[in-house]
Every structure is written in C-alpha cells, then in structure tokens.
Amino acid sequence: MWPLPAATVAVLAAGYGRLGDVVAGTVGAVVGCLAAPAVSGLLYLLVERAVSGRPPSPPSRAQARTALSTCP
User: Fold this and answer.
1) One-letter-per-residue 3-state SS of 3-35
2) Hey, how many other C-beta atoms are within 10 angstroms of the C-beta on 17?
3) Virtual torsion, Cα 62, 64, 70, 71, nearest 10 deg
4) What's phi and psi for 20, nearest 5 deg?
5) pLDDT tens across 35-55, in order?
C-alpha cells in the first residue's frame, strides 16, 4: 500500500474550501475543508479495492492432481 500524500489532501482541502466559500461563505469554506480528507480517504479506499482485487485461491485437488500427473 502506498501512503496518501499530504500534498494531495492539502490541495483537495483548498479546492473544496474555495468552492464552499463561493457557494456558502465562511461556513461553506470550513465544511469544504473538513470534507476534503473524508473524500480523499474514500477515493483511496475505492481505488485500493479496485486495484488489489481478490486474493488468488489455492488450487483445488483436481487441479493439483492434474499438475502432478503432467510433470515428468
């Protein structure tokens, strides 16, 4: 797993804060800055899950027997 860079979270917080400031003033800016780490964390978890996938399952007995019988 790679660590989520602090610079990315800071840029997102600034962007959400600016957007919140434009939409709802100071309160919107504060809410936007607080929402940025949560959104970053959720995106990180979604991407991590999509990239990692399921761990490989061990071969079944039939597959193991076939592999052993084909070896010289």
Assistant:
1) CCCHHHHHHHHHHHHHHHHHHHHHHHHHHHHHH
2) 19
3) -170
4) -65, -35
5) 888 888 888 888 877 777 666
Tokens, residue 57: 């399952």
Q: Return the pLDDT at 2.
A: 47
Four-residue CA torsion sign, 66, 70, 71, 72:
positive
For residue 40, how many C-alpha atoms fall within 13 Å in the half-sphere facing its CB? 20
Q: Residue 17 pLDDT > 70, yes or no?
A: yes
Please state, as a whole number, how many other Cβ atoms lie within 10 Å of the Cβ of residue 57: 6
**Residue 26 pLDDT more than 80?**
yes
